Structures are given as C-alpha cells and as structure tokens.
C-alpha cells in the first residue's frame, strides 16, 4: 500500500481510498488479495488484485539543440556551431552522427566535444550515447557558392533511432554566404528565469528577454527586429537597444544602425500580451530576434514564450 485516506475509523456512509502500488519483479500475471477487517468481527472482506508484469521495452530516443542559431560568412569560409544530442530513452543510442540534408551547396564535417566544448574523438565518426546522456558536437559548413539565408534542418540520427525532430530555432541553423565578408553576429538570448522561457505574468502583461551579439564579421549597416516565426501569437513585440548595463537607448518595432567589426551590441525584446493565453510549447511557441544586412539574416537568437 503506497497511500491511504483511511483513518482508524470510518463513519456510516463515508468512504476512503487506498492506493496499492504494483511493482513486478518478473513477467507474468500475479494475483494478490487485500483483506479488510470490520470492527472486532472475525470476518475478513477480501478484494482481489490482479496485475501483469512485462519486460521493459528498451528504446533510444534523441533530441537535439544547436547554438548559435545563425551565421553569415564569405564563400569558401567555414561556419561553425555547437550541437547537443540528448538520449532521452532507456537504451544506448548507437552510431549517432550529424549531417546536412540534401540540396545544400556546401561540405560538412563534425566532431564530438566534451562538456567544456573541447574537441575529442575522431572527425566525422559516429558515436554511441548512453541512456540519459548528452553528447556535445561541433560542426562546420563550408559553402561552395553564394547562398541566400537558408534555415537548414541539420540531420541528427543514430542507427537505432528515428532522426531528431527538427524545430526552427531549436536545432536548425540559418546560414548565408556571399562573395565578400558580411557582418556576422553571434547572438545569444537570456530570460529572467534563466531557462530560455519568457513567462508573461498575465494575459495582458509584459515579459522580456535580453540579447548580446558580437560582430565577428565585417563592418556594415543592419536592421534589428523581433517576430514569432510566423505563428501569429497574441503578442505585440518591441525592440530596445541598451548598453551593457541594460540602460535603454532607443526603442521601436524595428531598429537600424551600423555595426563595427568586433563590436558587441545589446538588445531587449519586450513582449506584451493581447488578452489570449499561449500554451507552454517550447518547440513551437518562440520569439526571434533577427539581425539583417542587405535584406539577409546575419545573426539571430530565440527563446520560448508562454502566457497563462
């Protein structure tokens, strides 16, 4: 018995609840009995308990994440990013690898990393991932021709699993390539809760996330704007540039400015509800901050959002 609402006595017409836990140690269909004695009677009331024990199904299941979300590079250069593959199943995921989908004019390579993102293992070699474990990777994409900004669904797969589900912003990678070096902003977003989720306090309240972006590319002009990835979420979004202390400098629906090589920029995205709830669905309900130069995405980051 794992729990009970029954006390020492039970009034006429009243009821109570007993919870019985069944933890089989072997396969089969065992039977047991629960006996109840009423007052001082020698009569026992019996309730038959039946259960079936099965062998646990061993199954590996993988999920993945990519950071940063976007890069912009010259043709022939290599854009690198980090990836994590999580085995959420109860069996070892075997021969796990990363690949590009078809149709991308680029070469691809990957290698495992340790928890400190230091390269280990052998390049382009699949690895096993234990149940409940996370394996880090770094991958590189080298375009052979100019590419407009393309959201690439990186393929994460193991020999004994289905490929990891692809979700924009979580495990996709936006890449553009041009003849000359463009601005290339490495951006990362942070929420007050520290878990990558913006939680509005009410349906008409306001939440926010902050972003830092460093330009590892060339000098250029750009526009900065926020969106919900086309989901049509019941929110109004506003972008504010700040300094490193978080002081607001300028706000708007979309901001324009120049960015120098090596310069770090800071932004806060404000999300205000319009009276409707947003389900907690981090894979789909997300907010994006995008940096564009010459109408091409040259940096981006994103977080999840929910409204009670």
UniProtKB/TrEMBL annotation:
Name of the protein in its database record: Choice-of-anchor D domain-containing protein
Source organism: Thiocapsa marina 5811
InterPro entries, per database record: Ig-like_fold (IPR013783)
Gene3D superfamilies given in the database record: Immunoglobulins (2.60.40.10)
Source superkingdom: Bacteria
């Amino acid at each position: 018995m794992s729990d009970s609402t029954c006390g020492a006595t039970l009034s006429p017409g009243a009821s109570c609840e007993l919870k019985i836990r069944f933890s089989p140690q072997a396969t089969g269909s065992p039977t047991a009995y629960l006996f109840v004695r009423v007052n001082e009677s020698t009569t026992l009331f019996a309730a038959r308990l039946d259960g079936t024990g099965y062998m646990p199904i061993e199954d590996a299941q993988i999920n993945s994440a990519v950071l940063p979300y976007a890069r912009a590079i010259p043709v022939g250069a290599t854009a690198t990013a980090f990836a994590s593959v999580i085995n959420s199943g109860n069996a070892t995921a075997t021969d796990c690898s990363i690949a590009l989908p078809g149709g991308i004019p680029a070469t691809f390579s990957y290698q495992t990393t340790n928890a400190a993102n230091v390269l280990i293992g052998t390049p382009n070699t699949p690895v096993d991932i234990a149940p409940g474990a996370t394996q880090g990777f770094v991958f590189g994409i080298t375009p052979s021709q100019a590419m407009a900004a393309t959201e690439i669904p990186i393929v994460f797969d193991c020999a004994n699993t289905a490929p990891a589900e692809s979700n924009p912003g979580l495990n996709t990678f936006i890449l553009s390539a041009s003849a000359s070096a463009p601005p290339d902003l490495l951006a990362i977003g942070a929420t007050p809760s520290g878990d990558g989720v913006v939680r509005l306090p009410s349906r008409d309240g306001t939440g926010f996330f902050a972003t830092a972006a460093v330009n590892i590319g060339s000098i250029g002009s750009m526009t900065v704007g926020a969106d919900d990835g086309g989901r049509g979420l019941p929110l109004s979004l506003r972008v504010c540039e700040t300094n490193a202390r978080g002081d607001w400098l300028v706000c708007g629906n979309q901001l324009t400015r120049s960015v120098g090589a090596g310069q770090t920029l800071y932004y806060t995205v404000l999300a205000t509800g319009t009276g409707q709830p947003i389900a907690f669905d981090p894979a789909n309900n997300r907010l994006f901050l995008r940096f564009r130069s010459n109408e091409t995405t040259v940096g981006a980051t994103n977080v999840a959002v929910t409204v009670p």
